[in-house]
Amino acid sequence: MPSSARTPEAAPAPADQASASPADPAPRRRRFGLLPRIVLAIVLGVLLGLVMPEALARVFTTFNGLFSGFLEFLIPLIIVGLVTPAIGELGRGAGKMLALTTALAYASTILCGFFALGVSLLLLPRLLAGASVGTLENPEDSAIAPYFSIDMPPVFEVMTALLLSFCLGIGLTLVKRGALQESFEQLRTIVVRTIEAIIIPLLPVYIFGMFLGLTMNGQIWTVIGTFLAVVVMVLVLTVIVLVVQYCAAGIAMRRNPLRMLATMAPAYATALGTSSSAASIPVTLQCARRNGVPSAIAGFVVPLCATIHLAGSTLKITSFAVAIMLITGMDLSIPKLIGFVLMLGVVMIAAPGVPGGAIMAATGILSSMLGFGDAAVGLMIASYIAIDSFGTATNVTGDGAIAAVVSRIAKGRVSGDLEHEEADAIAL
């Protein structure tokens, strides 16, 4: 039960009494975060790949085969479990305000995707000139054969899952909320818990096995060089995106965009430290209000955008996808990449709020639309999580810009969708 709902009798003891109580539990030990575990897995995979005997390496190759098979089985269920209730929930709420915020968030997300796509197609062929690993091999398909494998066919294909999710999600917006909507919300809970309890904890082991195999196959140095070049490019692109977003916000609010961006610095720093949009909501709200966004607008837009606005994540995924396609010699079909960015904007709306949740939601369309294999998807996961906090910080800071634009567009136009006191706040 939340602390605000506690009765007086259940209130915690004063600090001096609590410190004197021998029954108090010991302070929690700080957890070893996902990013340090991923970095450690990559380093160990590279170093041990130079000396590990093949018999022991086959153990990790076997694990990687089982893990990737389970992930392929789970991807369609992830799509249905996340996308369907997300679309259903977007159909209810604050009417015009909801539609306006969702449209701006989606537009910002896909524009960042197209920006990243254009820059990647322009710069990466030069930055990665001569870098090639041919067809990136899955560890379980390499000379290091697994001890055994298990076939895990998915319930249905990825595209079937997407179409089913769209049809069901749109259908849920047309009917009264009932057992079906609650069932999909429970399915989402199951999917998120599965990601949190199984996929995320085992990712470092999977990435260790993948980099172990790449090292033993002689492909690792090209991959590492590619990572460094693309990481620098992506970090520069996130700065450009934020400047452009706040130029638009400054025009809307008739304020200095650089000062508005500087006001959002605490939100950026909070997201950088927590890698969580949800944990940054209170700080983002405070910063948006300091930028002149009415409380009624900020209180609606910021929590919603924390879920549906993932411009930084889309930028990262698009850039690394093009890089991997270049070094593996895949066909850079422009129409296919445009379709990928448009679909990625939809999938990002349903991304769960867990570390690496955005890339986990995107694995399905990476495979179905771009033809990524297991090893390429594994590299995408590793590269994404390596700079996950910077993408989250970009998402969160951009939420403040969207709140500013919404406050300008919505002023005097959507008050009929809000409570009376909220309408007064908009009119300020």
Any overview of this molecule?
- It is found in: Membrane.
- Residues 10-23 have a biased composition (Low complexity).
- This is Sodium:proton antiporter.
- The chain crosses the membrane at residues 38-60, 66-87, 99-124, 155-175, 195-214, 220-244, 265-285, 297-325, 337-359, 365-387.
- Helix content is 73%, strand content 0%.
- The protein is mainly alpha-helical and 428 residues long.
- It has one domain (34-426): Proton glutamate symport protein (Orthogonal Bundle), CATH 1.10.3860.
- It is globular, with a radius of gyration of 23 Å.
Task: Produce the secondary structure layout.
Blueprint: H1 15-20, H2 34-49, H3 54-90, H4 96-127, H5 158-174, H6 179-217, H7 220-253, H8 257-263, H9 265-274, H10 281-290, H11 295-308, H12 311-327, H13 334-349, H14 357-370, H15 374-386, H16 388-410, H17 420-426
Main location: membrane
Subcellular location: Membrane
Transmembrane segments: 38-60, 66-87, 99-124, 155-175, 195-214, 220-244, 265-285, 297-325, 337-359, 365-387
Feature tags:
neutral L-amino acid:sodium symporter activity; 0% strand; membrane; 73% helix; mainly alpha; Proton glutamate symport protein; 17 helices; Na-dicarboxylate_symporter
Number of helices: 17
Determine the fraction of residues in helical runs and give it as a percent range: over 70%
Give the termini separation.
36 Å
- What is the CATH domain class? Mainly Alpha
How would you state the average pLDDT, rounded?
77
Uncertain runs are 1-27, 412-428
CATH architecture type: Orthogonal Bundle
Classify the fold: give the CATH topology: Proton glutamate symport protein
Order of helices and strands: HHHHHHHHHHHHHHHHH
Strand content: under 5%
The whole-angstrom Rg is 23 Å
Instruction: Tell me the overall shape.
Output: globular
Kindly state the number of beta strands. 0
Sheet of most strands: none
Number of domains: 1
Helix and strand composition category? mainly alpha
